[in-house]
Amino acid sequence: MNRPPAKTSGSSQSRSRYGKEVKELQDALNQNKIEQKRDAIRKIIDAMTRGKDVSMLFPDIAKNMETANLELKKLVYLYIINYAKILPDLAIMAINSFRKDARDKNNPFLRALAIRTMGCIRVKQITEYLMDPIKESIKDEDSYVRKTAAICIAKLYDVSPELIEEQGMLKLLENLLNDGNAMVVSNAVCALLIVQEIKGKPMLQLNTYTVQKILTAMNECNEWGVIYTLDALALYQPEDDKEAEAILERVSPRLCHQNPGVVLSACKIMMKYLDLINNPEVIRSNAQKMTAPLISLLGLGKEPEIVYVALKNINLIVQKRPIVIEKEIKQFFCNFNDPIYIKLQKLEILAKLANLDNIQQILHELKEYTAEVDVEFVRKAVRTIGRCAIKLDKAAEKCVTALWECLKTKVNYVVMESIIVIRDIFRKYPRKYEMILKDLCDNLRSLEDPEAKASMIWIIGEYVDTIENADDLLASFTENFKEEASVVQHATLLAVMKLVLQRPNDGMALVQGLLKTATTECENPDLRDRAFIYWRLLTTNPELTKQIVFAERSPISEASFTIENELLDKLIENIGNLSSIYYKKPESFVKKLRDVINRGAPADADDIGDGDGLINNGLTSDDAPNAQDYQTSSQYQPSTQAPSQIQQQPVDLLDLDDKPPVQSNIPQQVQQPQQVQQPQNPVQVQQAPSQQKFPNIRIPYAEVLPATQPGQQNQIAGLQIESAFQKNQDKIVLELKFTNRTQDKIFADFAIKFNNNPFKLQPDVLEVTTQRIEPGTSFLATVGINTNGPVCGDPPQMPYKVQVALKSNIDVYYFNIPCSLTVFFGPNGLIPQQKFVEITQNPNIAKKAESIQLSIDPQAVNIYIKHSQKKDLKRIMYIQWESEKIHKEMNFYLIQQNWLMK
């Protein structure tokens, strides 16, 4: 019996058909007619765009680079750009054609096309062959070629930065800033900004002359060139307010540009330079120039995406300077056909623009929004009413009345959101709006959202003395206590505690059952531990329980809903970029920026050097202490004594009394001094310690004066100070970073003074050398410190802090600066062997049996007290200092007097 013929599979037929198409394209590419070649390459690019692999045609297409037809050449270049990274060996075949086209003397467009294609081929092996054509193109007589070469340098810097710098390309790029053509200048600025972003260091050196060149070029270049020049101007710091005003005059016409990107970039310049101007009238007039352009971005006919971007940036501008938009609130009323994301953003801006003059108009609009069908929009509208009540004390009653009307609607999601908002209002204005308590309690049955339940329970607990049936209401919430969300359980437990403390007869039975359930049947460890604490407090000290439960709460204000000033300043610097949309710093979501910042960060302490190497380089074998004779951090066993006992018996714990010496912990060299062999070269032994240098530990800054803390005389707030004591070689210095967070104050003429302290620290001079600190700017000052100040008899407390008084031209500020004990360590704490033996053999010395670990800085440095001597009311401490992060297995010895355990 004959079998039927086998059927060809679909995949085999497809491969055969594809192979036939490739063969046809190869034949067409080898034809002499330009039209056939052009059609073939178009088909190839179409297939390439749809994801098909046509790389096998690379040699056939590369042959067609030597054509005089510009359209065909563009198609060939497009193909090569796409496959150069995949086939770098074949891409080298096209280099000669690129170099030839870049030197074509007749057609500048061909030269520019070749240069542009060179910049798009991101292959490191090819970059070296492109240097000569680019050097010639950057000096080309045609401006179109020069501007193309500028962008090409920036693209190639991303591929091979070392080669670009070695060939001096960046210097040639800087020279283009003096070009007579505006487009060349703008492209040079763009290229330098790209290189600066990649390198992480300033590349665009701006001065008065360069800024004037950029401003002149801005009048003639296209819209994208304008954006790049404005971004460059945003990096410039004017010398004075007069220069800032002059630049604003030149930039302000760009606010009327039809491109929204240009408008936002111009607003970025305006916002930055307004912080540098002192004249209030100039500030107001320039701020009002931004009003109409920003409102025009919200006009009818604009794409909703553009409107959304504009609203996100306006939200930042309004928080910084409300006067820009404060009279245009109607522009932010929601239209019925607005997308939800635009409606929510408009409500956010309305909350920021609300004041006593327009609150009635805003409330009327918000009440209408609460009748909408979109649940998310309605919730946001109710929340906005609550924000207005918290922001405006004098208008709070009107806002509460509006929320009262929302409660009466009996719409479930409106009622729940109203209760959440009213809780915050009760926190802001306690015991002020009790008339709505009855309506709140009438809506208990309709609560489904956990946050709304927790808010209602909190209100009942807060007014447990006013609501007569508070015990019954709370009992209804405890029926399903185990099934409730965590936030509801915590709120219920706190409210019942308030009930039993204010009405013991009504709440005792309820609290007993609830505490038993929370401690035995609930799996939430936080809830269980809290219940145990409350139970113990109730049984031991009811008065203390009342103080804890009714402790003063943190205040709630409009600042809780706004962006922090530091982040706000950073976002305003990035107006028009994605950062102003996400409300995040660029490095938090752009990996390349984050890598650049990490690359520029100081090396980790682990990379400083290996301890063994340092020992071998700086010490002889006789000088190095025997590590086996000392306890390391891994060998250290902490004391098991109770904390209370440690506090009551500090002397016994430290073992610094005059007990007999313990021989087992003394090094072998010290126990048998007669066996110590003197080194052959005593001079070398004495000089070795001075030659050994160890790097200082860099102490991170701590915020010692927040911007919200006012001064002592004029009560002026807004000055933020971050500070740290540092060790600069052998000198102690104090670094102070001043930041002006005010809108209109200028800080200057600083003077500093220390209170008496145990280490006798005092500044070398009282005056702090700084420049005038304008609003929104920072300045880093360094103050020399000496140890010749008045002595303080009290021992230092850990963590050690120095009390400081700082006087400025505006006010006097008092604060404490943390001080790490590492700044008191010398660059070399080694004691010569002979001296160590002589001191430790003194009969008055008390030998230490165990080591004491003290935490003194973030680098986890451990101090071990080795020996102690009390003589003439002075106690000399011999200390071993270990730090795995700084010098592995290195031992240092110090002598400290007058301050520890007198």
Strand content: 5-15%
* Arithmetic mean of pLDDT: 77
Any idea what the radius of gyration is? 37 Å
Structural class: alpha+beta
CA-based shape = globular
Strand order of the largest sheet: 1-2-3-7-5
Counting DSSP H or I runs of 4 or more residues, the number of helices is: 41
Number of strand elements? 13
Q: Unreliable runs, pLDDT <50, ≥5 residues?
A: 602-694, 846-902
> What is the makeup of the main sheet?
5 strands, antiparallel
Gap between N and C termini: 115 Å
Helix percent band: 40-55%
Q: Would you give an account of this structure?
A:
- It is a single chain.
- With 902 residues, the chain is of the alpha+beta class.
- Helices cover 49% and strands 9% of the residues.
- The protein is built from 41 helices and 13 strands.
- The strands form 3 sheets. A 5-stranded antiparallel sheet has the order 1-2-3-7-5, with no helix packed on it. Strands 6-4-8-9 form a 4-stranded antiparallel sheet, with no helix packed on it. A 4-stranded antiparallel sheet has the order 10-11-12-13, with no helix packed on it.
- A hairpin with a 2-residue loop joins strand 11 (862-871) and strand 12 (874-882).
- Helix 1 packs antiparallel against helix 2.
- The longest helix has 20 residues, at 10-29.
- The radius of gyration is 37 Å and the shape is globular.
- The protein starts with 9 loop residues before the first helix and ends in a 6-residue tail after the last strand.
